Amino acid sequence: MMVTKGLVIDTPWIDQILAGKKTWEMRSRATSQRGWIGLIRKGSGQVVGLARLDDCGPTLSRHEMLATIDKHGIPERHIADGAGAKWTTPWKFGEVKRLAPPVPYRHKLGAVTWVLLDDLVGMAINRQFEAASPPSSDITSAVALEENDSVQSPSGHSIGQKENAVKSPAPRSPAASSRSTLVGDTELNQTNLDNSHFYMSGFIGRFPANLIGGGNKRDQAPMSAIIDWGGPEPAETDIDGKKQFFRKRAWVKRFFADNDAVPGDKVRVEETAPYAYLVRLIKRGSI
To answer: Do residues 236 and 225 lie in contact, with contact meaning Cβ atoms separated by under 8 Å?
Structure first.
């Protein structure tokens, strides 16, 4: 299976879909798209899940909208007052899978509803999909989408966000995947701990060249890595090629604190998919 298209969905609707609480994505018009698609959190630059788009229903009346709240999640008061009047066509999802970590992609200028995903992104998604559960024989690539679908508006409306917001999961410890590949280990010193960074000079050449930028923020690399560090949300950053550590470091400070890092501990970096990495702390003397 190769997923080639992603659907842009706003928060909190995408969280409800990933949690299995919303099986109908409400849109302003119909679509002929069927099969597996990527789920893109609006504004994140990440494919956060997969969904099998099984069907597209007819436009619903207000009565039908009220009768199917358990499927689409739009609050009753917004149906009654007309705030959700535009979003009355159900795109019906079957199976849904969360991607952990999410897969980064480059958002193309002008893409509003659908995003065409490049081969590297499709490969990264496929690796996670197959690792979770081998695809069955009836899973096929998504069929060609209608030209008109590319310009329709996403579920960007703000109705019901407070009522339907999904809380972030509690912090967790990252675990090595059976499909991960070791990139390298680096030993921590006090300077690393004081400044929330760790040097990767010993293995910087094992990262893709387009992840490595210059020494200034304006010289960021064209691609970003998604970092699973064990926290509630993955980090997204490129690499400062001059200093040879991850450019964005707020997550590193919390990573050190959560793992009680001390000088002599090691940080291990593993690749789990293209542009996706797992960062773990190896305590001194444990290896």
So the answer is: yes
Work out how many domains the chain is built from and give that number. Answer: 2
CB 153 within 8 A of CB 113: yes
Distance between CA atoms of 34 and 52, rounded to whole angstroms?
7
| Contact between 22 and 72 (Cβ < 8 Å) | yes
What are the tens digits of pLDDT across the range 108-151? 777 889 999 988 888 888 888 777 654 443 333 333 333 344 43
CA distance linking residue 94 with residue 98, whole number of Å: 13
Sequence-ordered strand ranges (E) for the chain: 5-9, 24-27, 35-41, 46-56, 89-104, 114-116, 181-187, 212-213, 225-228, 235-237, 239-240, 245-246, 266-273, 276-282
- In which residue are the tokens 């899940």 written? 49
Q: How many CB atoms lie within 10 A of CB 70?
A: 10
Q: For residue 287, tell me if it sits in a domain.
A: no
Last residue of one domain, picked from the residues 132, 148, 168:
132
10-61 confidence digits (pLDDT tens): 989 999 999 999 999 999 999 999 999 999 998 888 999 999 999 999 999 9
Cα three-residue angle 204-210-213, rounded to 5 degrees: 70
Residues in CB range of 248: below 8 A, 6 or more apart: 235, 236, 237
Q: How far is it, in rounded angstroms, from Cα 248 to Cα 212?
A: 13
CATH number of domain containing 95: 2.30.130.30
Phi, psi of 47 (to 5 degrees): -90, 115
Residue range 198-207, pLDDT digits in tens: 999 999 999 9
- Domain, as residue range, for 70: 5-132
